[in-house]
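Quarterly update, task 2.4: flavin mononucleotide-bound model.
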Amino acid sequence: MDLSTTFLGFELKNPIVPGASPLIESADDARRLEDAGAAALVLHSLFEEEILREVGAQLAAEAHTESFAEALTYFPDLHSHLGPGQYLELVQQVKAAVGIPVIASLNGSTPGGWTRYAKKIEEAGADALELNIFFLATDPSETGQQVEDRTVDIVREVKSTVTIPVAVKLSPFYSSFVNLAARLKDAGADGLVLFNRFYQPDIDIEELAVTPNLRLSTSDDLRLRLRQLALLAGRVDLSLAATGGVHSAVDVIKAVMAGADVTQIVSALLIHGAEHIARTLQALEFWLEEHEYESLRQMRGSMSLARTPDPAALGRANYMQVLEDWRH
Ligand SMILES: Cc1cc2nc3c(=O)[nH]c(=O)nc-3n(C[C@H](O)[C@H](O)[C@H](O)COP(=O)(O)O)c2cc1C
């Protein structure tokens, strides 16, 4: 079965890509994932705050101090917060260890000097860059337009420093995501990675403390991605990756039918280990054969807004129908 796909211009042997996470802390980790069948790898992020910390207090003061403090507690113990220098070494080591494309990740929320690290990451050998723009709007005087403009500016800034492809990883919370996607394309983005999972803080009512916690996803998380992928596929000329809720071959199939070129997997690999990739690929191949597909590409986007026989099911009619059905 031909499981090949194209993402950010790379010809990949299949659509399974381990996503940004502590899955890769060394060249050995990367090799293990490649051996299990991964088609490309995404490294965990180098954070704007980590770069600013290194380049000094001066730059830190220019950044949004509030988001700076907040982000220092983001994913507190999840991966070994590598400084920029160590991160570049990790890129080099992983690149030397595997034959599949290596995608490094930069994570930030403001335009500024830190984005120059994109160039260093390129020089360290990364084949592509995933730019995670994670911003939580808290200022009542800041408009949605300003938030979007800044997102577009970051992408334009990064694209002006590198020649490797750049995929943008975003949250789902934009008023007109399709419009933002088109703007990001104009700013030079090569692909989108949908979506960031927000790790909602909880409240400890005894300690009166806001407690960050991280829950791994379930397949239910995929639904939010499916609709947006379906709205974008074939309508905006960008590579599309699904991230969030891909646990099984069925999830991969849904995401590809909606329009994803690749699916990123993290939670399922943290739970089941690297071998889960091989099992998922086997199940994917089996399903495609059973359903008489000749290739994965044949299936891609078949349930997107542009191609589904029932476009209304992706829009408001679906919402009304769901409520109606519940009453009956
Ligand atoms: C422990 C952990 C660490 C993560 N670190 C990063 C990171 O450094 N950069 C990033 O963009 N996403 C990071 N993520 C988010 C994942 O890349 C992914 O988007 C998210 O987990 C949803 O995919 P999943 O449902 O397959 O887990 C992390 C997720 C987990 C669980």
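Highlight for this quarter: The radius of gyration is 20 Å.
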